[in-house]
Amino acid sequence: MKIAVDCHGGDNSPQANVEGALIAMRRHDDLSVVFVGDKAQIDPLLADCGELKDRIEVIHAPEIITGEDRPTDAIRHKKDSSMIRAINLLREDPNVDALVSNGATGALVAASTLRIGRIRGIRRPAFCPLLPTMSGGIVGVCDSGANVDILPEQLVQFAIMGSRYLEAAFGIKDPKVAMLNIGTETEKGDNLRREAYPMLEKAPGINFVGNMESRDLLTGKYDLVVCDGFSGNVLIKTTEGTALEMLKKLKKEIRRKKRYLIGAGLMKKMFMDLKSFMNYQNYGGSVLLGCQKTVVKGHGSSDAHSFAVCMDQAYRMEKANMTEKIRESIAALPVEEETAE
């Protein structure tokens, strides 16, 4: 398997990207990597790669797409950027199976959709990040930012794509799918959600269990939550932010009194486990479901460990033949629900 790595665009790039990819290569003996970016910055980071050298390529791409660049302008004018060169490589080289990037979200979605293309029948690809649940499992959120304004049938497609992802890549049998809403009652929500509800109930290939309120995201009652990209992005970031602030508050309170410090010393292992559990860096990034090839978007703040988890996600998706499974499920939809353009 060969994965292209966009080496720029993140807060800790290119070091985190390169080091993370090397960690993943040591985990997977059949994985090779093409690093795309400024060779002057990448080559020194590969000086000690040792036995991995034979599985590494570097393609020079000196330009960087930033969050301030308009996606369409970046695609048109920054053709020598690491992101665009990596996407073109994924499109043109049949030996390259996947792409991992923690660059600008808008540019990545637009370029992947335009250059790589969508699976037939998919109206728009969608992001599906993972979060830990209190029951020890994971929950996916689809969409989490790729599509702000959507149609009801797109929620059905998100449910199908997310279900196939969780089944094939994580072995979750018959994933429980819920729709994010302001209440659990069938008639709750705006027009989008009221129209989507019966469509989700009737859609083949998904286990739809009804509406979900945001407070239940981490309970473990659900395996996948479907929503528009605006709501999903707010849900994810609010959950992550709350977890981080709670950890800060706990740390501050422990330091406030000596007896708290003594108790914390006795519970150090528990606190370390809790910190690890609540750290979103341990759960990788968002897979872009619905493209013709595998694309994974890491957090802009990814460190080497988090980037390695993103590499693992791409590797797992390819091993599970995800694209073909999604293609088959979308093709099974009734003709009136297909949304090919």
Layout of helices and strands:
Elements: E1 2-6, H1 15-27, E2 32-37, H2 39-45, E3 56-60, H3 71-77, H4 82-92, E4 98-101, H5 105-116, E5 126-128, E6 130-132, E7 138-142, H6 152-170, E8 176-180, H7 191-202, E9 207-212, E10 224-226, H8 229-254, H9 258-266, H10 268-278, E11 286-289, E12 294-297, H11 304-319, H12 322-331
Parallel strand pairs: 1-2, 1-4, 2-3, 4-12, 7-10, 8-9, 8-10
Antiparallel strand pairs: 5-11, 6-7, 11-12
Distance between the termini: 31 Å
Q: And the CATH topology of the largest domain?
A: Isopropylmalate Dehydrogenase
Helix/strand-derived category reads: alpha/beta
Give the count of helical stretches: 12
Order of helices and strands: EHEHEHHEHEEEHEHEEHHHEEHH
The Cα radius of gyration reads 21 Å
* Amount of helix: 40-55%
- The low-confidence runs, each spanning 5 or more residues with pLDDT under 50, are 337-341
The main sheet orders its strands as 3-2-1-4-12-11-5
How would you characterize the largest beta sheet? 7 strands, mixed
Give the mean pLDDT.
92
Q: What is the CATH homology-level superfamily of the largest domain? A: Isopropylmalate Dehydrogenase
How much beta, percentage-wise?
A: 15-25%
How many β strands by DSSP?
12
Give the overall silhouette: globular
Q: Can you tell me the number of structural domains? A: 2
- Which quaternary structure do these chains form? single chain
